[in-house]
Amino acid sequence: MTNRYQTTQLRELDALHHLHPFTDHSSLRTGGARVIVRGEGPYIWDSEGKRILDGMSGLWTANVGYGRKELAEVAYAQMLELPFYNTFFGTTHPPVVRLSRTLAELAPDNLNQVFYGSSGSEANDTAIRLIRHYWMLKGEPKRRIIISRKNAYHGSTIAAGSMGGMSHVHAHSYPVYEGFRHIIDPYWYGESEDGESPEAFGIRAARALEDEILAVGAENVAAFAGEPVQGAGGVKIPPESYWPELQRIVDKYGILFLADEVITGFGRLGTWFASQHYGIKPDLITFAKAVTSGYVPLSGVIVGDKIGDALMAHPDGFHHGYTFSGHPVACAVALKNLEIMEQERLVPRVKEVTGPALAKMLAKFKDHPLVGEARSIGVLGAIELVADKRTRRRFAEPGRVGLICRDHFFREGFIMRHVFDTMVTAPPLIWTQEQFDEAEVVIGRVLDLTLNDVAGELAA
Ligand SMILES: Cc1ncc(COP(=O)(O)O)c(C=O)c1O
User: Fold this and answer.
1) What does the alpha-carbon distance between residue 141 and residue 243 come to, in Å, rounded to a whole number?
2) Is the CB of 262 under 6 A from ligand 1?
3) Least confident span in 27-41, 217-231, 281-295, 329-343
4) Is 311 in a helix, a strand, or coil?
5) 177 C-alpha to center of ligand 1: Å?
6) How far, in Å, is the centroid of ligand 1 from the Cα of 261?
7) Is any atom of ligand 1 closer than 6 Å to the C-beta of 162?
8) Is the pTM of this model over 0.85?
């Protein structure tokens, strides 16, 4: 383990040489990065020996927890057997064949073919290209517009970032790429009108798709894209009425449907894919993160027969691919990871044990003076921090209080992330009651500490 001297040195070198994703580099320079050195089961350890309960599965990723020897062993064996070969120009290898078969079995019925990448962003870029290519093949090249939602996160590449609906991402370094539109997200707590029920709001939010289709001309629309539950946007759980109405509109206009399951795939909602939980019928599902529980990078798009058949019907190739598409080591690790999930019944356990335990734990904070709403679905949860519970009024400077709260969590040895003033959690699927009890104690303490810091700003 790294000692204190080494920690200081690592922080200095990190500040000098490492540019971090989604990080304020000026404050990183003064404060220094956290150095994480080890993980085991549901815990990680920092370089000063502090044990931290990871309520975010790394980054919505480590569904089987840390330190799984079987995953390391399978990677080692695959590296000795065939560490790399490409899948371009009609070549394949056993791990990618076996994984494709497994994913086709786990995915909804009509999705049978997989195109691979290494990150969720790449998977979504592939999906965007496949969607537009499909309409070209169908002789409708005008259909280019993809309608997504505000606050969606689909990745950081230019195309995936444009399909995403985060204004701070758009504002930063590039204009939104042509051909993407963003409608309201199904966020009842933040977007509904006074007295509007979740059901009524869900229908209204879904119908925004129809309004947008008509506004831009149905003949120009290629697809709708959405995360079944918006994750990085703040764990926004759509009302029950939302997805059926949205699916009806997608069907009515015959556009393609891309479900971004980079977070919700591989068990988060108690089904292999959230599409199965909601009964929606996407034409494409993008996945990444938990397919390997993060032990090595892997992502992909599972494609419906409609698109697969269109590709097969044309002799011209799809001019797209990544060196690491279907990387053999990543595929071998994914297969073992999915086998572990199956053997330990981690997916059904979400409905039977972990999901109800998370819901029960979060419900205990509903009456806390800072908490506007505590919600969860499966093992995805959120707590809204507000200045006025009654009116849902937020604190001034969005994100300030969330950051105070998040920093208390770090100091108390628990990781929960903040999205502005919404605290979000996505525990690994292996948590037992012991971890839920531990988290409950820390959350209670941290909410009190945060309340203490901002008490003067609360509604009387
Ligand atoms: C829903 C969703 N899509 C895509 C991505 C991008 O994945 P990556 O960071 O692997 O590029 C993320 C990342 O968090 C995500 O949450």
Assistant:
1) 28
2) yes
3) 27-41
4) helix
5) 18
6) 9
7) no
8) yes
- Total H helices, total E strands in the chain: 18, 15
Distance 118 CA to ligand 1 centre (A): 11
Rounded distance, CA 147 to CA 149, Å? 7
Residue nearest to atom 8 of ligand 1 (CA): 120
Q: pLDDT tens for residues 38-66? A: 999 999 999 999 999 999 999 999 999 99
Pull the structure tokens for residue 66. 């840390």
pLDDT score recorded for residue 129: 97
Give the separation between CA 307 and CA 51, rounded to whole angstroms: 47
Atom of ligand 1 minimally distant from the CA of 231: 16
Instruction: Judge if the beta carbon of residue 288 lies within 6 A of ligand 1.
Output: yes
Half-sphere exposure of residue 299, counting CA atoms within 13 Å on the CB side? 25
**Residues 213, 443: Cα–Cα separation, whole Å:** 43
> What whole-number distance in Å separates Cα of residue 430 and Cα of residue 347?
10
Model confidence over 276-335: pLDDT tens digits? 999 999 999 999 999 999 999 999 999 999 999 999 999 888 999 999 999 999 999 999
